Amino acid sequence: MVDWFYETSILITLPLFVGGFVLISCLIVVALRPVVNRLVTDPKEWDRALAHVIGTFGVFFGILLALVAVSVYENFASTRQAAIEEAGQVGALYRATTGLPDDQGDRMRQVLDAYMHAVIEVDFPDQSEGELPSASEVQVDQFERLLHTVEAETRGDQAEFEQALATFDDFIESRRARIDATALALPPLFWVVIWVGAAVNAVLIAFIHVSNRRLHLLMAGLLAVFIGLVIFVTADTDHPFAGAISIGPGAYERVLEQIIDARQ
């Protein structure tokens, strides 16, 4: 079910998710209206007591949804930033190799070219399926071995070599952050709390004593649309590399086209 959600087009999942959310909320209203009508003897007292309950619950549930949504988006944004930085650092390393002797520089540039293709063609598809990527590790090891064979002859060459080493270290950190984000997701207990909160919210809305049935359903439906949209966006961005809102290899493709392919 989870895989289907992330693999299916948003044109299908969004209407199904939000529409199902609204439908269930309206069915709860329809089911509980007769019960509420039988139980309510003093509408004013009932509404006053229910207002306190809904107000208190709404504060806690709203804060929970907001904190979870912000946390998920921050994880998504930090992962996207790590991918952009990694792609930029590969471009910087590629430029740095142009100052090395031809035989060493050519081999390094070939490794970087192969690395970018491995990331774009293998790593990102694997990450979109929730699998830790490993295809590009070979090129990383090759480049590191080649980098440590460089012998700087002048002070200027030494400075450039040290800068290349620093860039390589930053590249490794960004790469590690991108790979680690593959398994990034909210703990299941958070989702349990969110779904329980959504169910309680629907029940509390159904408890409101409204004489006009259509108006009651409209109120419940509108609130369900908004809550459903918030939960949908949160769930879709919970896995940074999967779903309609996901991180793709666009930054790597631009570096490959504008820096690597342009210099070959």
UniProtKB/TrEMBL annotation:
Residue ranges crossing the lipid bilayer per the database entry: 12-32, 53-73, 189-208, 215-235
This protein's UniProt keywords: Membrane, Transmembrane, Transmembrane helix
UniProt keyword Cell membrane, yes or no: no
The keyword Membrane belongs to this UniProt entry's keyword annotation: yes
InterPro entries linked: DUF4239
Protein name per UniProt: DUF4239 domain-containing protein
Taxonomic path: Bacteria, Bacillati, Actinomycetota, Actinomycetes, Micrococcales
